[in-house]
Amino acid sequence: MHTFIRIVEAGSLSAAAARLNTTQPTVSRRLQSLERLLGLKLVMRTTHVMKLTADGERCYAHARQLLDSWLAIEDDLRGSAREPTGTLRVLVPHAFGQDQMIKPLRDYLLRYPQISVEWMLSDRHPDFMAESIDCAVHVGAVSAPDVVAVLVAEVPRIVIAAPALFDGRDSVSRPQQLGALPWLALSTFYRNEVVLQHESRDERCRIDIQPRFMTDSLYALRNSALAGMGVGVLSAWMARQDIAVGRLLRLMPHWQAAPLPVYLVYPYARYYPAKLRLFLDMMRQVMPALIGTRQPGG
């Protein structure tokens, strides 16, 4: 049943074998054994396509419930007496995953030595079932209707530039003056306009921009700003050290872009294994305190 579930979620026998750390012939034999046991054809296979039969669809629904129920029983009867185990697969944003999240991840692994983590860096929305991903940390809005999304922090964003950009230029004193400067755009969050809000007044300013450089990488945006290529909107945590030592300037310090929400995202399920529950609990606690973030609504 477990192998059959993996076949369905992975989309092919070879992908299921990789998820289960076994061979494709082994997965095929297990599927054939299940079909013989039930006396049903569960999967229709051609050279390029694998499709569940109607019986296969019903079998998957029952198998999913059966496995979740068994895991819940096992966790209830044995969980309190043993260390959590297994491999946790987590999808995290490139910048967060390489920087602030490493320390809490280290603490998690030290506290639970029987757990291992597969740490995947990507800013995309995952296919949890097909990729066997347990959870994701996502920055920005979550639109998928079939997942749990828990808001755990908001990341302040500020306007920055290198001092060299103003060699021979007048400094800016009003947000409207920013539009005349060369701009760097973070394509995942802004392209042709930037909206800034005052930190203490109910006042907003929309700025049309024509980017000289556009990227989907927060690190590339920071490095291009350091090189004096233009003005950009950067997460405050990433700019903090550069501002402190004078490599970057914070422009219009009383103005900032709307903070980006940070969510813990995972699929709906009747049962969540201990390795996932413990990771989610840890991230809820530490995420707002990570450098440059703040409590939602704070």
Automatic annotation (TrEMBL):
<dbReference type="GO" id="GO:0003700">
    <property type="term" value="F:DNA-binding transcription factor activity"/>
</dbReference>
<dbReference type="InterPro" id="IPR005119">
    <property type="entry name" value="LysR_subst-bd"/>
</dbReference>
<dbReference type="Pfam" id="PF00126">
    <property type="entry name" value="HTH_1"/>
</dbReference>
<dbReference type="GO" id="GO:0043565">
    <property type="term" value="F:sequence-specific DNA binding"/>
</dbReference>
<keyword id="KW-0805">Transcription regulation</keyword>
<keyword id="KW-0238">DNA-binding</keyword>
<keyword id="KW-0804">Transcription</keyword>
<dbReference type="InterPro" id="IPR036390">
    <property type="entry name" value="WH_DNA-bd_sf"/>
</dbReference>
<dbReference type="InterPro" id="IPR000847">
    <property type="entry name" value="LysR_HTH_N"/>
</dbReference>
<dbReference type="InterPro" id="IPR058163">
    <property type="entry name" value="LysR-type_TF_proteobact-type"/>
</dbReference>
<dbReference type="GO" id="GO:0006351">
    <property type="term" value="P:DNA-templated transcription"/>
</dbReference>
<protein>
    <submittedName>
        <fullName>LysR family transcriptional regulator</fullName>
    </submittedName>
</protein>
<dbReference type="Pfam" id="PF03466">
    <property type="entry name" value="LysR_substrate"/>
</dbReference>
<comment type="similarity">
    <text>Belongs to the LysR transcriptional regulatory family.</text>
</comment>
<feature type="domain" description="HTH lysR-type">
    <location>
        <begin position="1"/>
        <end position="53"/>
    </location>
</feature>
<dbReference type="InterPro" id="IPR036388">
    <property type="entry name" value="WH-like_DNA-bd_sf"/>
</dbReference>
